[in-house]
Amino acid sequence: xxxxxxxxxxxxxxxxxxxxxxxxxxxxxxxxxxxxxxxxxxxxxxxxxxxxxxxxxxxxxxxxxxxxxxxxxxxxxxxxxxxxxxxxxxxxxx
Amino acid sequence: xxxxxxxxxxxxxxxxxxxxxxxxxxxxxxxxxxxxxxxxxxxxxxxxxxxxxxxxxxxxxxxxxxxxxxxxxxxxxxxxxxxxxxxxxxxxxxxxxxxxxxxxxxxxxxxxxxxxxxxxxxxxxxxxxxxxxxxxxxxxxxxxxxxxxxxxxxxxxxxxxxxxxxxxxxxxxxxxxxxxxxxxxxxxxxxxxxxxxxxxxxxxxxxxxxxxxxxxxxxxxxxxxxxxxxxxxxxxxxxxxxxxxxxxxxxxxxxxxxxxxxxxxxxxxxxxxxxxxxxxxxxxxxxxxxxxxxxxxxxxxxxxxxxxxxxxxxxxxxxxxxxxxxxxxxxxxxxxxxxxxxxxxxxxxxxxxxxxxxxxxxxxxxxxxxxxxxxxxxxxxxxxxxxxxxxxxxxxxxxxxxxxxxxxxxxxxxxxxxxxxxxxxxxxxxxxxxxxxxxxxxxxxxxxxxxxxxxxxxxxxxxxxxxxxxxxxxxxxxxxxxxxxxxxxxxxxxxxx
Lengths: 94, 497
Fold this sequence. Notes:
The complex is a heterodimer of chains A (94) and B (497). Chain A is mainly α and 94 residues long. Chain A contains 3 helices and 2 strands. Chain A has a domain at 5-43: Histone, subunit A. Chain B is globular, with a radius of gyration of 22 Å.
C-alpha cells in the first residue's frame, strides 16, 4: 500500500474536500492502484536530468504600465452567490 | 425556409462548400442555421452533444450576416457557418459550465479570445458542447450532467473529454466545433467519432478564457469534416494574444497554403512503441495500410524508437493533476458557481467543493495535492517533470531525422459505455498514444481512416513545434488519395441502449 486511509484524509483536508467513510475507502483503493502504476517511473535514472515545467522558452512578459479596459463591477458581481455593498459576502470568519 | 419545395439538405457539408454557396447567395445563413437547429432538435434526445443550445441567438447572428452580405460586404470564409464550442470556453452572456455542478449557473462576463476571433469571422454560434467534467476523462461519462453518445453507434462512447464537440460535428449538428486537448481530448474523440481533430503546438492558440485544467498542457483546437475546413478554422483562431502570457510570439501563416497533394520526399517516422502493447490488431493493420499508401505516393517511412513512451502516461497523471489541484482551488463558492451554505467559511468551502465536484475530479485534485505535498514533491512531481524532459528529447531526436510521425490515435475504436467507467487506470490507458504529445508541447492531428465494426478509427500525425503545415500536407494527401471511410452516422438503427 502506497497510501493509507489516514493519508487520504489528510489530502482531502488539504484539498478542502469532505469525504464520506465510503468515499475514503474508494479513494484509498483507486489512488493506491494509480500510485503503484507510477512506480515504473523509478526504473528511469533521472539524477542528471533537468526538469521541464514548461515547453516554451518563455521569458517574463512585460507591457507598458497603462490602465486598460476592466470588467464592469456589476457584471463581475452578477455571478456571486451572495453579495453586499459591492462586495462578495461569505459566512462569518471570526 | 421555402416551405413545400424540395429543400436541399444543407447539413453534413463542409464549411468551404457552404461558404461558396453563401457567397454566391444560393443559400442564406438563416436557412443554413435553421436547418442545423432542426437537426439538433431531432437528434439531441439521442446524442446529447450539447449542454446549451443558443438557437435564438444563432438565428439573430445568421440574419445579421445575411444583411451584411446583401449590402455587398466581403465576408470571411467562415461567415454565416454554424459552429459550436466546448463548454469550457468562456462566452459572454452564455452559460459556461465545464459540465460541472460547481459551475452550473456560471455566466462569463467576457468572451475567450478564440470566441472573439470566431465572432469577428462571422461564425454563427449554435451552443456549448458537453464534455467530461473539467475536461477530465476520455468518454464524457464524467460529465456532471449526462454522457454524450457516439453518433456512429449509440452504445459506444464518443471519446473525451471533448466528446460533445466531436459528436456534434459527426452527427451534422454543426459544421465545425472547437475542443480543448490536455492529453488527447481533441484527438481521441475525433478518432472515435470519425472526424478530424487537431491539437496545435502549445502557445499557438490563445488560452485566454479557456477554463484551466492543466495550464502547461491545455490547447484549443478544431474539429472539422475535412482538411480544408481544418485549415480554415486554424486561420481564424491561431496567432499571438497579449492576454495569454504563454502565447507564443509567432505570426500564423495562411494554413490553406499547406493543403498540397504531395508527400514526395517527406520522411515519416513510425514510432514502434505505439504499435505494441494493447493495440487492436485491426487498428495496427490500418496504420500499416496508411504507411503503404504514403510510400506509394513517394514518402519515405521508417520505424523509429521513442524509448520513454511508456513513462509518459504515469508522468502525465502526476503533472496534469498537480496543475489541476492548483487551478481548481478557485472553486470555493465565493465569487461564482455553486455555494452550499454552512455556518463558517471553511465548512462552506468543504461542502461546496464536495457537492460540486464529481468523483473523477475529486480523485485528480487529491492525486495532484498528494504529488505536490510536503515529503512527496521530489518523488512524484519533480520526478515527473524530469521524465517530461526525456519524453521531449525522444521527440527532438526523432525530428532530427523525420518530418513527422505516424501512429494510431487511440489503441482501440470507441469502447462501450460502462466498459472502463469503474477502472480509472484502464480509462487513462485509452490516451496512451496522445499524451506524450502534450508533454512535449508539439502539434498532432487525428484523421479518420477506416472503421472496425462500424466504429471509426483515426490515424495520428505528430509534427515539430510550429510545423502544423507538414501535418496538413500529409493529411490532405491521404485525404485526396485514399477512399477514406467517412462513415455516415447511423441514427436510425443502432439505437439500442
